[in-house]
Amino acid sequence: MSEASATLVAHRAAQFDDAAQQRESSVLGMWLFIATEVLFFGVLFAGYTFSRVRFPQAFADGGARTDLLLGSIETGILLLSSCLAALAVRDVRFGACRAAGRLLWGTAMLGVAFLVLHGVEYHAEYGEALVPGIRYHPSGHPQPAMMIFFCLYYAITGFHSLHVAIGVALLSRMAREASRGAFSADYFAPVEVTALYWHLVDIVWIFVYPLVYLVGRST
Amino acid sequence: MKPSPPSLRSQLLTLAALLTLLALTIVLARISLGPLNVAVALAISACKALLVMIVFMRIGEGHPFLRVVAAAGFIWLALLLVLALADVYTRVPLPLP
């Protein structure tokens, strides 16, 4: 038995017939998790939809107070990081494990950059007294409804940032393992599944962006 | 048969398309279109999400059950939103007795 096939067998759990079946099961499991995540964020989006239909003006006033420039840069960062994650999976499928490791580090670093920029945003909002319950000067029409906008803003972006932080931890671990050459063209499910999770984080943000940052920009 | 890895060109073109859509949605958000603003912004977001799912997440590869599971999440979300909105739009607030 060659060294490569020995690692392959070591990675295979007993309940699977072969490596391909194991990989398919991993990917299916991740898609199942993604479906539950869609519903997790979906509830927050449903609350947002309900409140925005009731109080369109307050949501426009609230959206206009968010930082469009930073929000757009964050969106660009996440889109770029998603592409890097996809390229890492591509590389590892070609057997270029160490190149994939570098791409995964890059993806994780972009995730850190996203978190830093979001921290800057939260800090500025604290300065502007836009944090309900902690430091908040009432504004918008009607005033209590703009508070709902900001509560939803912190809930949605807060949970999203938590997902980004978890993603950064997972990506860093995958990057470290890939740099050691732990994956091959026959065994790359951990990288693939982590990348799928990262794309989910990206997709959630793709919908957060217009609902938070692009509201009330045309008036 | 194992599906072949995607080409570098397709991934980079997708990134370019995503960033172009991002620029487009910023420009359109600044033009007053009335209620169409939110519809256009969400349509562009849906296009971006589909691009990510098809090209980056390779949803077209693998067992068809993957597509069923992925669609199930979004269909339940659509049900949630449609029924919640139906409630908001059709219910008349009752006056206090």
Key attributes of the depicted protein:
heterodimer, A: 219 residues, mainly alpha, Four Helix Bundle (Hemerythrin (Met), subunit A), two-stranded antiparallel sheet, 2 strands, B: 97 residues, 2 domains, flat
Radius of gyration of chain B: 19 Å
Question: What about the largest sheet of chain B?
Answer: none
The helix-and-strand class of chain A reads: mainly alpha
Unreliable stretches of chain A: none
Determine the oligomeric state from the structure.
heterodimer
Mean pLDDT of chain A: 92
Regarding CATH, which class of one domain in chain A? Mainly Alpha
Biggest sheet layout of chain A: 2 strands, antiparallel
Shape of chain B: flat
**Low-confidence parts of chain B:** none
Average residue-wise pLDDT of chain B: 91
Helix content of chain B: over 70%
Order of helices and strands of chain B: HHH
Helix content of chain A: over 70%
Beta content of chain B comes to: under 5%
Please tell me what the overall shape of chain A is.
Answer: elongated
Order of helices and strands of chain A: HHHHHEEHH
Q: Please report the total strand number of chain A as a whole number.
A: 2
List the total number of helices of chain A: 7
- The total of helices of chain B stands at 3
